[in-house]
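Subgroup meeting minutes
Present: P.N., E.W., G.H.
Scribe: E.W.

1. P.N. recapped why we're keeping a running log of single-chain structure predictions: easier to compare across weeks, and new members can see raw inputs and outputs side by side.
2. G.H. added today's entry (263 aa).
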Amino acid sequence: MTKIKEILTALESVAPPFLQESYDNAGLIVGDPEATVTGVLFCLDSTEAVVEEAVAKGCNLVVAHHPIVFRGLKRFNGSTYVERTVMQAIRQRVAIYAIHTNLDNVYHQGVNAKIAEKIGLVNTRILAPKAGIDTNTGAGMLGELTSPMSETDFLQHVKKSLHAGCVRHTLLRGKPVRTVAVCGGSGSFLLPEALKAGADAFVTADFKYHEFFDAEGKLVVADVGHYESEQFTIELLYEIVREKFHTFALHLTETNTNPVFYA
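Output recorded in log:
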């Protein structure tokens, strides 16, 4: 009989909690680590619908990328989706675990490695290694396409590979794309590193209007959307757990938790 804490140990052997950023809230957010696992549901965001799906599929553990709780909750009266999700999980005895920036910050089986795989990058390395720690940890990733592409073809390739509804990008430079930087989620903080590394393009999300100016025509920023950049993390989490456990059901969520729609 496998306990929830054993699943968490397996996940944290890939992405240790000490690698999460100071603002983060990764870890077991709801639930009893000593409970026996009946099934695991993997998702990007734990929402009310995801908890309902877990119950319907006989899963008592939800493994999410994004923490449902970032800040302290002072009341539990169901006035926000966060409160309702936590209340529902407790009521249904469904544990919720989040593995967020610690999974962003690892090279092997990390979030950015999965994005690089989907885009088809080779010769990859961490874009911004963490100071004082092994170079296989840090933010973002840098890699190369197997052969150069035009900027237009590259953007279409990224859009298709990441199932993006659209790609917001900076002015095209009329130069081939070979070296590519990637960062799942909000990656504008890594633009200086991408420029320093000589990247031809930077695939990420959540660039603000004025931040597009910061590229200064030195590379092409391709903003694919937050959900779109990280959606394959669900597959990644499934693969990590499947390697070690085979005695209970593992499910990829069928609930689309992307809050952004395109007309």
